[in-house]
Amino acid sequence: MGLLPGRHFFICTTIMGDEGALEGNLLVAQSGGPTVVINATLAGVVQEALNHPCIEEIYGAAYGLRGMLSGSFIDLAQESQHVIRGLRHTPGAALGSCRYRFQEADLAALFDVLQSRNIRYFIYIGGNGSQHIVRLVSDHAKKIGYGMRAIGVPKTIDNDLVVTDHSPGYGSVVKYVATTAREIAIDDQSMGDYDLVSIVEVMGRDSGWIAAGSVLARHMGTPFDAPHLIYIPERPFRDSEFLASVQRILESNRYCLVVVSEGIRNEAGDYVRTSGIKDPLGRTELGGAAEHLQSLVEQYLKIKSRTTKLGISQRSAAHCSSQRDNDEAHQCGVRAARGAVNGESGKMVTIVREGDSPYCVSYGFTPLEDVAGKVKEFPAAWIDESGSMISSNFFRYVAPLIQGEVNVPFKGGVPEYVLLDGAKKAEENLFRRKSEIR
User: Strands, DSSP E only, in 290-418?
Assistant: First the structure.
């Protein structure tokens, strides 16, 4: 059926099944910047929803909140099982995403759509801001007496959602970052002559979890393995200390490899460099931390320096993603759909670490008020005294998250990814509407 344009109005009644399940339709949406495993979560939602007769239709919102507000839905039950399975290894957001500043004033319009489509289960896959929206939706449903269950599913490469041990997407991004740092280090070892500084900039506006994960590239017990310096937003960045550290490393090493979060701040709490442009959510766009460090090296140390920005590649590199991360992301989607049918609402799925040796997790739910608006900073106990390196205690936490490699199929020498048939129709309809406006 693909995209379902317009609205279909009918009388909505709440019918309770034998176990208290609501009979009606399920809507799932993806929000914010994608992760390499956000589609694995989507696959988990769809595959579990198909097991419950109380769920009559399974819809996906095209392009996140914009699709939810306009009623642009994709019929996921009509997608082939080959495509749904293919979501497990496909990067990006298969439903489409957006950055939209949702206001409480939007709730009335949103519920016009939800009620007209008899949406009784709403699952939103996203980060901190998305969990706030799920909470608003859940509270509004109660306020107006509309029988609906709303569940948030964690998604963020930043790993800054509280309560959950870690967020789906994080294991894969640090696997890629650490791999790339290792490969750059090998290249630098070939070319350096105690005079080369490489600076790798990674994502991380308010927390340094991604940059910290690059420490996986180091060989335990070998002090000169790269990265040699890691800078994260949780510690103030000081120009003089950075320059002194670089000089010290180059005294005994052919090169110095630095990994830096895009959101590092100076002692005054200001970003060391920004683009000066505001994003759709009103936040200052970051970028330039690596260039700032490069300018310091070239101006004061008078040696060559080069920068690498991993950019979008760090959240879309399916070819270097973690199988464990993929499996956990899928399970989060399964638990969200199952939990909603079983009566959970106004909560976010959580990953609970049960043990490290062997590594073991379970899944639970936490009230959204315990998550929304909160940020999990990188623990101070895992930052060494210099403030420019991550302690070995962090390894026990992060190492299990990168285990296993996703089997991405290749065709003609390049990865073969899938595209939802309904998403193709959604794009065609969107293009047609924009053409008509012009």
Answer: 304-309, 347-356, 359-367, 410-411, 414-415
